[in-house]
């Protein structure tokens, strides 16, 4: 599957822990209907065991395949390979990016979280295709996310990277705040709760696309 800058535009992340009121399969279907451009499967302390995680992952992957949405797996390279995922996303405390690149080969997508220009430069040198920068704003979806670094962090980091480096902002992003993240130089926004916890995930995704497109209209 091809993966381009456009895939970062509205990047939805979810595991069953993020869907207290719905079935994650339904949430993903709705989010796709609403126009998301990429999906990351992030099962974290949800209570699912590894077998259940694989079973749900296959279901979510099949839905992404049907709709030609890239399917990225958070943290776990073994799970990404089992699920024949489009790619993997790792943080600074997960498997080192260079090792992940070695295991997944040249074709799968590698995303890496980075908070500083140094982390960002290392991530790309180690084989990242894109970086995730955050938390932009305060978030309740990741207890260890640390203090918000704000959209300005994206401009700062971009200044140290070659033209065209792919960056997605993450953390506490709502439809109203998304334009600030784009204005700071992000290629897109990565979102958990503003879509997964909405009563109507399709509408929530559409609301993002609307504010983002309006903000960049000439
Ligand atoms: N990494 C940095 S913040 C965050 C992750 C996974 C959580 C984003 O979730 P939300 O609900 O969009 O704030
Ligand atoms: Mg991680």
From TrEMBL:
GO terms for biological process: thiamine biosynthetic process; thiamine diphosphate biosynthetic process. Pfam families: TMP-TENI (PF02581). Mg(2+) binds at residues 75, 94. Residues 10-195 form the Thiamine phosphate synthase/TenI domain. GO terms for cellular component: cytoplasm. 4-amino-2-methyl-5-(diphosphooxymethyl)pyrimidine binds at residues 40-44, 74, 113, 142. It comes from the Bacteria. Binds 1 Mg(2+) ion per subunit. Its EC number is 2.5.1.3. Keywords: Magnesium, Metal-binding, Thiamine biosynthesis, Transferase. GO terms for molecular function: magnesium ion binding; thiamine-phosphate diphosphorylase activity. Pathway: Cofactor biosynthesis; thiamine diphosphate biosynthesis; thiamine phosphate from 4-amino-2-methyl-5-diphosphomethylpyrimidine and 4-methyl-5-(2-phosphoethyl)-thiazole: step 1/1. Gene3D superfamilies: Aldolase class I. 2-[(2R,5Z)-2-carboxy-4-methylthiazol-5(2H)-ylidene]ethyl phosphate binds at residues 139-141, 172, 192-193. It is an enzyme of class 2 (transferase). Its cofactor is Mg(2+). It catalyses: 2-(2-carboxy-4-methylthiazol-5-yl)ethyl phosphate + 4-amino-2-methyl-5-(diphosphooxymethyl)pyrimidine + 2 H(+) = thiamine phosphate + CO2 + diphosphate; 2-[(2R,5Z)-2-carboxy-4-methylthiazol-5(2H)-ylidene]ethyl phosphate + 4-amino-2-methyl-5-(diphosphooxymethyl)pyrimidine + 2 H(+) = thiamine phosphate + CO2 + diphosphate; 4-methyl-5-(2-phosphooxyethyl)-thiazole + 4-amino-2-methyl-5-(diphosphooxymethyl)pyrimidine + H(+) = thiamine phosphate + diphosphate. InterPro entries: Aldolase_TIM, ThiamineP_synth_sf, ThiamineP_synth_TenI, TMP_synthase. Condenses 4-methyl-5-(beta-hydroxyethyl)thiazole monophosphate (THZ-P) and 2-methyl-4-amino-5-hydroxymethyl pyrimidine pyrophosphate (HMP-PP) to form thiamine monophosphate (TMP). Belongs to the thiamine-phosphate synthase family. HAMAP family: TMP_synthase. This is Thiamine-phosphate synthase.
């Amino acid at each position: 599957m091809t993966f381009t800058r456009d895939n970062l535009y509205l990047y939805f992340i979810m595991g069953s822990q993020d869907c207290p009121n719905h079935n994650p399969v339904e949430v993903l279907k709705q989010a796709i209907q609403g126009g998301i451009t990429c999906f990351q499967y992030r099962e974290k302390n949800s209570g699912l065991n590894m077998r259940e995680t694989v079973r749900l992952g296959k279901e979510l992957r099949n839905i992404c395949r049907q709709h030609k949405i890239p399917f990225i797996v958070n943290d776990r390279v073994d799970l990404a390979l089992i699920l024949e995922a489009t790619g993997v996303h790792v943080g600074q405390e997960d498997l080192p990016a260079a090792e992940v690149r070695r295991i997944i080969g040249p074709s799968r997508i590698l995303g890496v979280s980075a908070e500083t220009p140094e982390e960002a430069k290392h991530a790309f040198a180690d084989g990242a295709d894109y970086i995730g920068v955050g938390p932009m704003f305060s978030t309740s979806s990741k207890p260890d996310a640390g203090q918000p670094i704000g959209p300005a962090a994206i401009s700062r980091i971009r200044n140290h990277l070659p033209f065209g480096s792919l960056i997605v902002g993450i953390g506490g992003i709502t439809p109203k705040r998304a334009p600030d993240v784009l204005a700071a130089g992000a290629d897109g926004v990565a979102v958990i709760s503003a879509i997964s916890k909405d009563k109507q995930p399709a509408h929530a995704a559409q609301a993002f696309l609307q504010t983002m497109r309006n903000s960049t209209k000439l």
